[in-house]
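Inverse folding, one chain.
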């Protein structure tokens, strides 16, 4: 990337850094313990004075009846639910608009989401549209486009990775254009987040691995970027430590209570970190890949993460060395380059343990690379405060390496 373009990106990021001081990044009220869904949440919702909530839940979890005990406890307190269980993948325009209509027809006064990132992002996008009926979804896409405050939102994650329960973002799929975009606004941070480990007890191994690697990508990208604060860096490092210590055990046994609680916390902290300090080119490229080929978000991040970190080269050595020290991956005396290599080797090792592919062989088509890189450039520049700014040509090189 040439000097002029680089200066433009860095200036843009500095303006956003200053603007951050004036935005309300209030963290959600946290209900954090096993059983919080059926006990603490109904009691808390009673105190809001609202008596009708719109529940967005994935079809799979609805069929399993995950919501039933909560529904009963709410009913005992005079609170009714309208249930919307059409979620089975990331939110499309149709899914969101149907939710908006049903919400209005039902007379609901607030929103609850139970599920992974897809259910929580569906809820956030519905909330944004309800409060801003004159703005279409594409008009809400981007940064700080949500003018009016959505209704009260409660996020209940059932995977440990997306961090959507604490972030400003809702990722939306534009099927017609094979595109994905993100609505980013602090008004989309849920009011209440419920971290109830019992909801993760029957997660399949592939989801544990992919969502766990998504959380790791959030923590690393937010840590190595230029917009971190003391707090976001601390949260990111704590998340990485929890992932280092617990993700392999959670993968081995989803019923390991200590490991799953730790991963739920790691996901939350990584979300808290990246929602203020941003992600980077791993996410920009993963969103492009997901839009083109429908690859799952966590898996795509996991494959891309080592390639992107290698492409940053020297510019990321210092921060990666700090991560290595925090996780004690090498001796203290090792040089920054060796420590950075140790972090990348650790990520590759995790991918291998989880059976995650080393590259995109059989998926990524050479002729799509220029368009994918352009898409990632558009998402990443000038917004993401990455260690080294890259243009589409440089991003193409990364993708070429992932072809296998
Ligand atoms: Fe992510």
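Residues assigned per position:
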């Amino acid at each position: 990337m040439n000097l002029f373009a680089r200066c433009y990106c860095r200036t843009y990021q500095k303006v956003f850094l200053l603007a951050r001081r004036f935005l309300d990044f209030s963290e959600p009220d946290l209900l954090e313990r096993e059983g919080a869904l059926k006990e603490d949440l109904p009691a808390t919702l009673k105190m809001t004075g609202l008596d009708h909530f719109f529940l967005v839940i994935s079809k799979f979890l609805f069929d399993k009846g995950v919501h039933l005990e909560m529904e009963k406890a709410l009913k005992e307190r005079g609170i009714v639910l309208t249930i919307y269980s059409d979620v089975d993948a990331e939110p499309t325009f149709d899914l969101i608009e149907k939710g908006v209509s049903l919400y209005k027809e039902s007379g609901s006064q607030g929103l609850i989401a139970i599920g992974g990132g897809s259910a929580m992002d569906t809820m956030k996008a519905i909330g944004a549209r309800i409060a801003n009926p004159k703005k279409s979804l594409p008009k809400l896409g981007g940064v700080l486009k949500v003018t009016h405050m959505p209704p009260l939102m409660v996020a209940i994650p059932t995977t440990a990775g997306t961090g959507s329960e604490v972030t400003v973002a809702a990722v939306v799929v534009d099927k017609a254009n094979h595109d994905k975009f993100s609505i980013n606004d602090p008004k989309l941070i849920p009011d209440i987040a419920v971290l109830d480990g019992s909801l993760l007890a029957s997660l399949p191994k592939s989801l544990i691995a992919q969502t766990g690697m998504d959380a790791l990508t959030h923590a690393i990208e937010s840590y190595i970027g230029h917009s971190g604060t003391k707090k976001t860096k601390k949260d990111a490092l704590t998340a990485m430590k929890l992932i280092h210590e617990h993700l392999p055990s959670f993968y081995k046994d989803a019923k390991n209570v200590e490991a799953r609680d730790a991963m739920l916390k790691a996901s939350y902290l990584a979300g808290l970190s990246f929602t203020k300090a941003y992600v980077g080119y791993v996410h920009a490229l993963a969103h492009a890949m997901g839009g083109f080929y429908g690859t799952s978000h966590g898996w795509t991040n996991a494959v891309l993460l080592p390639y992107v970190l290698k492409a940053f080269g020297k510019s990321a050595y210092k921060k990666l060395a700090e991560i290595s020290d925090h996780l004690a991956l090498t001796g203290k005396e090792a040089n920054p380059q060796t420590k950075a290599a140790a972090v990348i080797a650790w990520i590759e090792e995790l991918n291998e343990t989880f059976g995650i592919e080393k590259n995109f062989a059989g998926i990524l088509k050479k002729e799509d690379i220029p368009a994918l890189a352009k898409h990632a450039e558009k998402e990443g520049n000038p917004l993401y405060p990455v260690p080294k700014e890259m243009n589409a040509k440089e991003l193409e090189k990364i993708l070429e390496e992932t072809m296998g």
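The beta strands are 29-32, 52-58, 80-87, 110-115, 142-143, 152-157, 169-174, 179-184, 192-195. Residues 202-401 form a domain with the Dehydroquinate synthase-like, alpha domain fold (CATH 1.20.1090.10).
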